[in-house]
Amino acid sequence: MVYECAARIDNTALMKHANEYGNINVRGLFCSDQDFLVSMAELADVRSGTMSFETIYHPYDSLGTLMAFFVATAGTLLLAGVCFGALLITRWIGAEW
After folding, report:
1. pLDDT given for residue 37 in this prediction
2. pLDDT value of position 23
3. Which of 33, 43, 44, 47 has the fewest CB within 10 Å, making it most exposed?
């Protein structure tokens, strides 16, 4: 893992690769083959073992997806009804003139 690789490197070598914001690009340290920025605070968390790499989100929210489907369907039908009603009213007013 990139964070663990960077955490094993001493701070003086890390600071040579810091940008103007204090973030360190670990690509130059051969910890990643792509640009990857880490901060000293993140590395301190990795070194102390307090950094958590788990996400708080579930990969798929079936209830939320189902609710969004029904809300979107109802909204689409309502909008189509309003447009159709406006068309009928426009034709009715146009026929009166």
Report:
1. 92
2. 92
3. 33
